[in-house]
């Protein structure tokens, strides 16, 4: 048995090694074909090709040199495009001289200096219309003043050239990703099915084999032996290495996705089968995420197989991940409907109310409206109602995707959460600050949607959204939230950052039937409950004084109850009366009544 | 929010009392276990006395009951401390790590190891227990030890890596914990038990057998009706084998002595305070010497309490004594009157709870009802009075029960019929767990020819209705 189990582990490790090395198993080559797939505009493509002179069809063996070269070419192409469309001093002079006597601006005269049938002329005419329309017919005190205004306008026109005609910076990530992916060739792309099977199927089966034989061993019961003696689960070398790997993965995924194209190529066939289109890095991420929840979910179920609550709960997150988070959105894409994870609730789904998504909903007609309505319903009615009846656990540890990963992949690390009073204070400031940030950002997005104005008090609303996306969604939820599992526990994001958790928590704290009941005087202060609380709640503090636990952060995972060796803790829904004010009772001592 | 509130409240309370009483006393507590610390915390809440807690074992209060989890790697020592280290200064409880060597009760002076002295106005002895050693040959060899203190844990850590096989002597709660600890490091364990079943002086036959089976399931080599004769030494003075009462020599490198504990009061032998097995105290927890009290494991009550032993070496009684004594010291002289007996434990995977009194054998006026699940891992025993049919005690294994409900039933002297009908009220298992009340009812009806029906549901809604 041990042998087969270790075989599973070895298989998994080999698959993983192959997975990592797969990143370097392609070569890259710019070709007509790859370019035409990535750059649809013919003129732009031409510029790029010219800038790439001598490098077309050149074979790169390293992704890094390829990406670096492409970036050089992009900058060169932009320069060329800029030169081509730029308006120069001389042109300003001509326009001004056409505007005799030189103090009043007439746009028609200005335009007439260009040939409307040449592409450049047409572009400049349009630009003049867009940027100098407001000068039309205005008389200035002097010709000098008109010149100043015109020069300023032309500067703006010149600055916008790359965005309109070239390869703008904000799109670099995506552009380089597509270009790299389409230019890949060689061993891996040619044998992608083989790699897909070896890595994904092989890795999954190997892991499952190991997990099954390991997890099924011995009798059913709490299995926490050696957790604090093993470097894997207690910040030893392997733990730290795992953390570093996860952090690196998230950084590359979010900010340098063009280094991951080989992985994305592997899952292309799955993407085609599900939604008819090519895979993106997010599709790859979705697959990895789902596999992690499924495989580690099996581990969770085996580990807690004596506890029906844990089994049901884990089954639930596995189900919601496969269906709501993974399959259904793919089907929506296949049906050309707006992308939506129907269980993701605003403000966790922070861009639900951005103009782009609102427009997509509206464009989709009735179904789109229905989807939008569903999103609003979940936030406004679903959350308070369900939290009232069941506590925030119905979402955080039964449905949520972040929670799902934390409860499965993250379970081995739950004991690393910080239980100190200081951490609790930080948590309360931080998580509510993020909630405020999310609400404000969404308010601005709605303002932009309804008024069409992208500016409030001189600040770009999109810049605020971008900041939120970068700081909160990418860095906090991704890099820190998951990358820090092996370092700071599995609920860093949920505890310190998630705005939805903050919202659910407020309802749970003040208006819910849920609490963790303490069983009379049975607590022996051993500390297992606090140690294994992933949210860093000092459960023992309450249990040892006979007090029920009502805390906004509790996600109701039920592990405190499971690990308690004296059966002291129970997650219960009950009448709300006296839930908050209930005095601690330590049953047993008839001589002293304790109203602490 | 709670956490902060209550700490804040404790200070406010202390301030209030400060105004009320301006005579500040120095209260010294020997022992930072659950009894001493509970007394200290409650004295602080109710008064402004100067409080000093002395212990030679560890600097801070930790949970002795969690020693096994440190060894098994479920927790680290820091996790077993119920209060963060800054708690003590904040609540003005002074800590002193030292052994008290001697006490002069007339001068009210403590003599500490290392030559320091300390004066007290009132003294609380909360010195706990030490493992029993019954004069076995070889009981002081290296690799032979009990499990009580933090130092015992360190010693186990020291010997475990060189232990291929261990023998544990005495089948009680700490014995099982030791067995579980050693098993977690894959060390085979032989368990010598004097009785014909595990913990036979406390558990009735069926429960004892249930646990015996479970121990065997965990590959514990259980030797029933077997006692320790002597421990045999190797050349270096370390245990290398034990000889049993059956004449068998079992090779081993580690011997766990877990045949009970007794009060840790050796240093008081000639101090003039009245001692029997423990420090003798009256119903106010007062010793024979004025201004000196004793609580917890080390106290032996001279006044009998119904269904209660004179020395009770459990966590809960230590805590309750601490609460009571604090009231005596700060407010008014208060009787120590623990309510109904309760206790709990865990044997590998099987949890155990007991409420009221259940002896190994039935008392004369008692009748019993015993149910066991088909898997042989859960059971429930209810003992009741033959004549009145009222509850006297219960044992439960593998099912969690609500303390509050059983306590209420004991107090209200409920009959067994009522209890069977309302059993779901006492169910404290997590949601979705299998419920056994129906099965239990069927068996009860069968055995007693009754037609009772379940009258309630599990959960807080049914309970608080
Ligand atoms: C492994 C283990 C598991 C247990 N599990 C349970 C359980 O599950 N449930 C339960 O109810 N009970 C359990 N117990 C029993 C319970 O822990 C004790 O009853 C309880 O801790 C006693 O508390 P106490 O405050 O009286 O004494 P202690 O906790 O023993 O504290 C006394 C302290 O005083 C110190 N001290 C003594 N003499 C001196 C001196 N002269 N100078 C300085 N310091 C001194 C000692 O070193 C010690 O630190 C368990 C005990 C052990 C050992
Ligand atoms: S795990 Fe149970 S016994 Fe231990 S401190 Fe928590 S509530 Fe108390």
The geometry of chain B reads as: globular
Largest sheet of chain A: 3 strands, antiparallel
Uncertain ranges of chain B: 1-8
Number of helices of chain A: 28
Q: pLDDT average of chain A, as an integer?
A: 94
The ligands bound in this entry are: flavin-adenine dinucleotide, iron/sulfur cluster
Uncertain regions spanning at least 5 consecutive residues of chain A: none
Helix proportion of residues of chain A, in percent? Answer: 55-70%
CATH topology of the largest domain in chain B: FAD/NAD(P)-binding domain
Helix-strand makeup class of chain B: alpha/beta
Strand percentage of chain B: 15-25%
Cα distance spanning the termini of chain A: 55 Å
Read across the widest sheet of chain A, the strand sequence of neighbours is 2-1-3
CATH class designation of the largest domain in chain B? Alpha Beta
Round the Cα radius of gyration of chain B to an integer and report it. Answer: 24 Å
CATH superfamily of the largest domain in chain B: FAD/NAD(P)-binding domain
Number of structurally distinct domains of chain B: 3
Largest sheet of chain B: 5 strands, parallel
User: What class do helices, strands and sheet pairing of chain A give?
Assistant: mainly alpha
The chain-level mean pLDDT of chain B equals 94
The CATH architecture classification of the largest domain in chain B is 3-Layer(bba) Sandwich
Give the SSE layout:
The complex is a heterodimer of chains A (596) and B (465).
Chain A lengths: L1 H21 L4 E3 L2 H7 L3 H10 L7 E2 L2 H23 L3 H10 L8 H6 L6 H14 L10 H17 L1 H5 L6 H11 L1 E2 L1 H4 L1 H24 L21 H19 L5 H15 L5 H23 L4 H27 L20 H9 L2 H25 L2 H4 L4 H8 L12 H31 L3 E2 L2 E2 H23 L1 H4 L3 H6 L1 H12 L3 E5 L9 H4 L7 H5 L15 H5 L5 E5 L23
Antiparallel strand pairs in A: 1-2, 1-3, 4-5, 6-7
Chain B lengths: L1 H19 L5 E5 L3 H13 L3 E6 L11 H6 L13 H5 L2 E5 L2 E5 L4 E4 L4 E3 L2 E4 L3 E3 L12 E2 L4 H10 L6 E4 L3 H12 L4 E4 L12 H13 L3 E3 L4 E6 L5 E6 L4 E3 L2 E4 L3 E3 L15 E3 L10 E3 L4 E3 L13 H16 L11 E6 L2 E7 L9 E7 L6 E7 L5 E7 L5 H9 L4 H6 L15 H12 L11 H4 L2
Parallel strand pairs in B: 1-2, 1-7, 2-3, 7-19, 9-16, 10-11, 10-16, 11-12, 18-20
Antiparallel strand pairs in B: 4-5, 5-6, 8-17, 13-14, 14-15, 21-22, 22-25, 23-24, 24-25
Bound molecules: flavin-adenine dinucleotide (FAD) and iron/sulfur cluster (SF4).
The site of flavin-adenine dinucleotide has 35 residues of chain B, from helix 2, strand 2, helix 6, helix 8 and strand 21.
